[in-house]
Amino acid sequence: MNRINKCLFPVAGFGTRFLPVTKSTPKEMLPILTKPIIQYGVEEAMSAGLTNMAMVTNKYKQSIKKYFEPHAYIESSIKDTAIKSLLDEVNYISRRCDFTYIEQKERLGLGHAIYTAKPLIGNESFAVILPDDLCINNGNSVLAQMIELYNQHPDSCIVAIEEVPMSELHKYGVIDGELIENSIDTYRVNSMFEKLDPKDAPTNLAIIGRYILTPDIFNVLENTSPGKNGEIQITDALMILAKQGKVIAYKFQGTRYDCGSVKGVIEATSHLYSNS
Ligand code: G1P
To answer: Does the global pTM surpass 0.85?
Structure first.
């Protein structure tokens, strides 16, 4: 079996929606309770059995790298105190996972960011988490659900989808497809489009920030021209593979919070606070 080992985090954006705080703090380091947003993504990848985290960053994001490294001074200063366990979760991540980083030198879109990671990924299928989409589950995490599906369809890419109100659809990639026989949540994708005017949208099935990609995607991305907003779009590259019957969309179980918006950060915080 073509096992998934690596999870890619495209985190090179500037988070301008969160200015001024993102002037010096990457948006992925903004806290939900006491953990940064990126940690929820890494924990989701670990819950799906992945321990190799590949980050596409920019040169202003050193704090993400630092965060996942041990901090000897703080550790020794809290070691005999009541708060000594507060670093346990992040230290567990640092011990268990390997982190690799590559810089995206130009801001040419999500497809370009994913292509930039090719040297970190190599010739294998891999997962992608956009940490802005924070997913919370009671059972298996969204990525674990997707890997289970991928294991049944190892030649296909998988995208996670959810139904969104038509008025929100312009923020997302959208898919059209046929339900796979005997399923209620899994579609064979026929077509997909990036950020359509809702009046042109074939469905309200929006792509959210979880993907399993086969290495074919790199060859396709190499030849993908800029699309919506002049950026190289992963949606356009996946459309090429969808035409070959190689993309599945999966309506995941769980709740997603859009932590690319202040409202989503507040909602995720409030949900986790009331359940802590
Ligand atoms: C990206 C993708 C889009 C997807 C979205 C999910 O858009 O291009 O297809 O629906 O993530 O969060 P972005 O949010 O980076 O504009």
So the answer is: yes
